[in-house]
């Protein structure tokens, strides 16, 4: 009755005797990529209800006998790139409820059979970018609850298509994301009284959504990420509870005792941005959304408006917003506390931005995939330090550079160093430093790094270092220097004997490369952009000989600053 052959990638064909499985109800052949054709006996599986052929190398041949499966309710054809058209005989599948055609990139036409499959409730056409004549195809789908048209709308069919979608009265979930030809939604969309999820992500030319969408009682989630031209987002009516995701704006009305943050309670998105946190009226509101239980959440951004008045202390509020273990990336902006809750430092990837008063980061994890610190001028990095950071970014946060690894003094005058990690090295694969007013010589951080492969320095004016720092840079294979006000490359570049790629961008004061550049024998690629005098130097016949050992050389115009 139930047979799962998914991921059996070496199966090329099914035997003719397969049709003798008279009681088979559920068959999964997904990712059996070598199966290109089904035996004729396949049409004898009269009791088959569920058939999954996703990611098979299917052509129309695999569909020849499908029409005989008159009890079929679920059909998965996702990723079957060989299918160009669904045959008219598909119209005999009267009981079909679920049809997944996502990423059938060759599919051009579905209209031949659509008129008669009136019980269909789920239709996924995501990524079917060649498909045409959708408006007429949708007319008969009066039972449709889920419709996914991600990235598959053509120019010129927007108006008629939107009108037909508006007539799908049972629709609950509609995905129109990544469609450039959607400019607006008609007022008739407000007639979709059962719609609970509308995804318009990256419809980058959409300008208008009906204001009355905010009065739709059933609408719970509206995805608007990447809709940069949208003039105004619909505001929820007091009688409704829909939320706009992934960017959720915390609002509070005059005289109201609480904000709308509680509307996030029943959501479970993969990405969530909560902005205007200064409008939260109590810590209990934050606790009520049960952020820790949102097990699908992978990326979280929490933001306060810099300088705005608060109802709740930032740290008290943040202590109630502990994310789930599923989280991969955390970003916090505009926080005005002097310290952060311990849980922040224990995340895998952390970005801290515009924290003018932050002085310490406690409870740091031993390893990060990424640690990014931007405009945190008072933050000092003291023990304990992470043992490994894959990508470390520091911009406009000079105290981080100068204090990394320094020991604090106890009341007795002795230095406190309670762990070997406080005095040891931090392994970092990549380091980006931007807008530092400190001489590179004072970047204490460099003396505590090992294994550095990529170094990116942006908008810094003094790149001189002492000899004791150079060994910590010796492992660099990729160096980028961008928009730095310097007249020549720093001398330590010639000590990077393993350097394979060098990028110089927007450093207009640099007029030549140092003598002995040919000693960097492992240098394979040189990119120069926005350095006109340096370009001329590189193009002279004499200097071309000095650069002959470099395989790829790219010289281009002014940098975009």
UniProtKB/TrEMBL annotation:
- Residue span, Ig-like domain: 238-279
Does this UniProt record's set of keywords contain Signal? yes
Q: Which InterPro entries match?
A: Ig-like_dom (IPR007110), Leu-rich_rpt (IPR001611), LRR_dom_sf (IPR032675), LRR_R13L1-DRL21 (IPR056789), LRR_R13L4/SHOC2-like (IPR055414)
Q: Respond yes or no to whether keyword Repeat is given for this record.
A: yes
Q: Which residues form a coiled coil?
A: none
- Record-linked PROSITE patterns: IG_LIKE
Keywords, sorted A to Z: Repeat, Signal
Q: Classify the source by domain of life.
A: Eukaryota
This chain's protein is named: Ig-like domain-containing protein
Recorded source organism is: Aegilops tauschii subsp. strangulata (Goatgrass)
């Amino acid at each position: 009755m139930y047979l799962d052959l998914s991921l059996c990638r070496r199966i090329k064909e099914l035997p003719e005797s397969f049709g003798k499985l008279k009681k088979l109800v559920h068959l999964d052949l997904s990712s059996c990529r070598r199966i290109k054709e089904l035996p004729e006996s396949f049409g004898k599986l009269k009791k088959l209800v569920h058939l999954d052929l996703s990611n098979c190398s299917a052509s129309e041949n695999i569909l020849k006998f499908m029409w005989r499966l008159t009890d079929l309710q679920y059909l998965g054809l996702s990723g079957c790139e060989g299918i160009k058209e669904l045959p008219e005989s598909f119209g005999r599948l009267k009981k079909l409820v679920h049809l997944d055609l996502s990423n059938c990139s060759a599919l051009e036409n579905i209209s031949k059979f659509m008129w008669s499959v009136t019980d269909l409730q789920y239709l996924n056409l995501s990524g079917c970018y060649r498909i045409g004549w959708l408006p007429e195809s949708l007319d008969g789908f009066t039972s449709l609850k889920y419709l996914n048209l991600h990235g598959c709308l053509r120019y010129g069919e927007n108006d008629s298509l939107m009108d037909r979608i508006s007539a799908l009265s049972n629709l609950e979930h509609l995905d129109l994301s990544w469609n450039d030809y959607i400019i607006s939604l008609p007022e008739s969309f407000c007639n979709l009284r059962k719609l609970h999820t509308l995804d318009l992500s990256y419809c980058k030319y959409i300008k208008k959504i009906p204001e009355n969408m905010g009065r739709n009682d059933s609408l719970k989630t509206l995805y608007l990420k990447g809709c940069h031209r949208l003039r105004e987002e619909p505001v929820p009516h007091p009688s409704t509870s829909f939320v706009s995701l992934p960017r959720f704006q915390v609002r509070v009305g005059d005289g109201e005792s609480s904000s709308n943050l509680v509307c996030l309670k029943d959501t479970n998105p993969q990405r969530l941005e909560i902005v205007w946190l200064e409008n939260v009226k109590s810590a209990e509101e934050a606790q009520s959304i049960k952020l820790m239980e949102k097990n699908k959440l992978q990326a979280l951004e929490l933001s306060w408006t810099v300088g705005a008045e608060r109802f709740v202390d930032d740290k008290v509020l943040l202590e109630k917003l502990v994310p789930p273990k599923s989280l991969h990336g955390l970003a916090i902006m505009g926080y005005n506390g002097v310290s952060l809750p311990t849980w922040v430092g224990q995340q895998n990837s952390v970005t801290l931005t515009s924290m003018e008063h932050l002085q310490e980061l406690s409870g740091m994890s031993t390893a990060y995939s990424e640690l990014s610190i931007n405009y945190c001028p008072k933050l000092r990095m003291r023990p304990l330090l992470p043992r490994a950071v894959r990508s470390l970014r520091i911009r406009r946060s000079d105290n981080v550079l100068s204090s990394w690894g320094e020991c604090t003094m106890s009341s007795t005058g002795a230095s406190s160093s309670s762990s070997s990690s406080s005095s040891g090295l931090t392994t970092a694969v990549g380091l980006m430093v931007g807008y530092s007013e400190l001489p590179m010589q004072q970047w204490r951080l460099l003396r505590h790094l090992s294994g550095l492969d990529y170094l990116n320095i942006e908008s810094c004016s003094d790149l001189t270092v002492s000899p004791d720092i150079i060994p910590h840079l010796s492992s660099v294979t990729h160096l980028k220097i961008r928009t730095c006000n310097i007249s020549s490359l720093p001398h330590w570049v010639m000590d990077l004997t393993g350097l394979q790629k060098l990028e110089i961008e927007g450093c207009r004061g640099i007029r030549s490369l140092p003598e002995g550049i040919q000693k960097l024998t492992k240098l394979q690629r040189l990119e120069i952009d926005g350095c006109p005098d340096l370009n001329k130097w590189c193009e002279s016949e004499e200097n071309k000989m000095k650069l002959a050992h470099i395989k790829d050389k790219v010289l281009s115009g002014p940098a975009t600053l």
